[in-house]
Design a protein that fits this description.
By secondary structure, the chain is an alpha+beta fold. The chain has three helices and two strands. It has one domain. 4% of the residues are buried.
């Protein structure tokens, strides 16, 4: 159950990662998590410097998340 996962994260001060490579978790999960007060972190899933996202991609992702507040 998604609510249980989110609640456990909140209770244990665990951040929920939004993975840029796979665009997961989806928008509905992120909205639910934010509405409950969960903390979100953006992860690149990069395993080398060349795989890091551009600043433009990071800015777009922050805008996407901020629209949900």
């Amino acid at each position: 159950d998604l609510n249980k996962i989110i609640n456990v994260c909140i209770e244990n001060d665990v951040l929920i990662e939004r993975n840029l490579k796979y665009n997961l978790p989806d928008i509905n999960f992120i909205k639910l998590a934010l509405s409950k007060g969960a903390k979100i972190i953006i992860g690149s899933d990069a395993h080398s410097i060349s795989e890091l996202p551009t600043m433009q991609k990071l800015d777009e992702e922050w805008e996407w998340i901020n629209k949900m507040y």
